[in-house]
What does this fold into?
Amino acid sequence: MKSFWQNTWKHRAHVILALPVFLVLFFIMYVPMGGLVLAFKTFDYSKGIWASPWCGLDNFKFLIASKSTFITMTRNTILYYIVFTSIGTFLNVVLAIAIDQLFFKRAGKIMQTIMIIPVFVSYAAVQFIVYAFLSTDTGILNNTFGMTTRFYTNASLWPYILTIVKIWKDTGYGSVLYMSVLAGIDSELYEAAEIDGAGRWKRILHITLPSMVPMITVMLLLSVGNVMRSDTGLFYQITRDSGILYPTTQVIDSYVLHAIFSSSNFGFTAATSFFQSIVGLLMMLFANWMVRKIQPENALF
Amino acid sequence: MAKINKNADIAPSRHEKKTFGQYILLLILLIVTILMAAPIYLTIVAAFTDETYIVQNGFKFFPGKWSLNGMHAVLRYGKQLGTSYGVTIFVTLVGTALGLLIMSMFAYSISRKDFRMSKFLSVFLLIPMLFNGGQLSGYIVFTNYYHLKDSLLLLIFPLCVSTMNVIILRTYIVNSIPDELMEAAKIDGAGEYRTFFQITLPLLKPSLAAVGFMMATAYWNDWQNALLYIDSNSKKPLQLLLVKIQKSIAFLLSNSNVPASARAALGGTIPQYSATMATVLVVIGPIMIAYPFFQKYFIKGLTVGSVKG
It folds into this structure.
């Protein structure tokens, strides 16, 4: 132990260099972790977190009693995660292969640049663009196809709308990572296959795809850790936080955000947050454990 | 020599590949690109479309009547838009610069080999990625305990440090900056701080550009912290302005910064469609213009970050 402190003293300059991030993490990330005890308390604003009275598992009883709200948002969170991740990964890979296979390299580059742009548009702004497409009277969809669909009051349409918006926003950006894997494939492999008489599709199937599998696996597994977290902006902004759409659009993150603004039912919200954090932690540990088994060099810890 | 010959071999076979299928692939990708670009294009077009035209015919990709009224309306918000621009630029610049500085300091520290505390610091860095208190406790702690409600600090610090970004920087230091360089500097009598600021930091530039651009985008696009914590008009960033416009365009008309005469002039005909689109355009414009210049770094950074060292 003594040598540890001697070592630390010797490296005091490094301690000082590390200090600012240490403090920011401590005050911004670590202190709020303590706030999770709220899940076991009846929150009283005037008393603060610590002085509020304990209430045991009452908040969780609420959670289970309120079946529909809690179960709906948990279900939505998980289903959207599954849909976004599966479709998203598939499209990222397909787009990366398509651009990589394209003979017209310069055109490919320019198209990729354009396709990445949406990721830089905030959801607060995307929301207006989506409105221009979906508005009942002035929306492009209704006008072009002569419909009078009231998109903003029809909950059953929103899983599709949100999926399309998400694909539009993230696909170009998501393919970049896979492009870099493709760039790393030894071109001699392709040549050898070509000499052996493998056609384009065969080469994609037997060389391109297998070489992408490791990256796909790692990305998928790491994303498992975020199953309980959603792209809040997508669910809060694009839907205009409209109550009518909640059955198909409310996820845990947007629920919590909404609850903070309406200052309603902090006990319920705290229990939800607690649930979200714990499940998130477990999924993250699980994901890392899996990556460690399959590809130790890509494990987070 | 052998290498050149090899390349010469590839060239003709590459030429052969320009088949019919290639043109089909090009066509499909072109269509996808156009579909992806369409919403952005629509934003630009709608911002310059005549308001009454939109009300009567709806949004159009090829409108019949152009007008600058939307843009004029944006300018009429005048002061508030200017203030919001100022806030966003300030937060983006300060946040990105501060974040890059302290994160590279931290990354440098934990990458020192015989620094035994680095193990603890790495774990300390990693835990927030696995577990966090969630939005609600963050909100209560920041407002009730730190009393930072309506403070720009809450726009800066929550986005300032991210575990992933520190890992990207650390990976770059470990893989791309030779230790010998730092050792040599020390032998030449440079202190720890001088070694970091004069040797490591300048060599870290490509990685800083990538991380910096991603951070700047996150700051520029952050609406959530603003919505949670910012109340006063003088501290409202652009994204919050957008959110508020959505809540009600009337907000702007009742805003004290809009002169009464202008409000009267607008009267009942609020140019809401073209004006909001013009605002959107003004908000997303800078990032879209800056991005192509950073694309090179940013793709590199993404790639480096994905492979942990």
Remarks:
- The mean pLDDT of chain A is 89.
- Chain A touches chain B through 101 residues (CB under 8 Å).
